[in-house]
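Single-chain item
Fold in token form
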Amino acid sequence: MKGKFITFEGSEGSGKSTQARLLYQHLKAKGKNVLFIREPGGVKISEVIREVLLDVHNDNMTKECETLLYMAARSQLVYEVIAPALKAGKIVICDRFLDSTVAYQGYGNGVDIKFIEQLGQFVTDGIKPNLTFIMDLNTAHGLSRTGKNKDRIEQRAVSYHNRVRKGYLAIARQEPDRVKVIDARGRRMEIQDKILGFVDTIL
């Protein structure tokens, strides 16, 4: 792959989407060939799956169904957008990727992590981010930022979201070269400056 793949991860309300978009805007202003996408979603089929996953009325969805739906959405996005963009030499910034499934469905819901990793290898065609940022924030504080209209995942108990946060930190310990934990409590542009420092090393 000639391009670079940068992903943003984090618990609810951590500011990862804001930081991902700020990085996209910065690189675009610098004249870089850059693409910004989100998960689940990004293409027509994946956006439809996103609606099913986040719909609060689907409260009887099993953890197995949930895991497979996230993977299905990811597979389509990789096939239609991520793989072609990386082959073309673009910088791809993605709001969530496979680490989300490990954290949310693995650590959070108790789905076997080895299974998630094996299935992830299949649906991503082996594509892995060059750099991943985990925006870390106190769980209760993050959830307070999500507003009143919470989606199906956001509505889950604080204990669930605590497991997700611990999962992310475990991922960071396992892959320190790829994964960088960013304290999400600071000012927006101060956080962005830290992120840019890491991005410069791979560009």
About this structure: The chain has one domain: 4-202. The first strand starts at residue 4 and ends at 10. The beta strands are 4-10, 34-38, 91-95, 131-136, 179-183.
